[in-house]
Design goal:
This protein has a domain of 63 residues: OB fold (Dihydrolipoamide Acetyltransferase, E2P). Helix content is 23%, strand content 45%. It is built from 1 helix and 5 strands; from the N terminus they run αβββββ. A 5-stranded mixed barrel has the order 1-2-3-5-4. A hairpin with a 5-residue loop joins β2 and β3.
């Protein structure tokens, strides 16, 4: 096998490994909203009984309020922060 084929195969394996590792950094938490803070281009959400800060980068006002029960899926950012990819409002039924 020539060097180009070996490097190509190793590159593909490396990309696959990076994709697998990046999927593991997602985190899912749920709970009731304790506090929402709107700042320039970002929203900070704090969940009761969680020590993590959830960051949502948007300039839109979201239809969430304190004591709403939510599920957050996002990427870990530092030890106690999550950048939200998806926020799901749960019904209390």
């Amino acid at each position: 096998m020539n060097k180009q084929k070996i490097f190509f195969i190793l590159s593909i394996i490396g990309i696959i490994l990076l994709l697998i590792l990046s999927q593991n950094s997602f985190e899912k938490i749920s709970g009731k909203i304790e506090k929402i803070i709107y700042q320039d281009g970002a929203i900070k959400i704090y969940i009761k009984n969680e020590s993590k800060e959830i960051l949502l980068f948007t300039k839109k006002i979201i239809n969430l309020k304190e004591n709403d029960k939510i599920i957050v899926v996002g990427k870990k950012y530092e030890i106690n922060k999550i950048i939200a990819n998806k926020i799901i409002l749960q019904n209390d039924s």
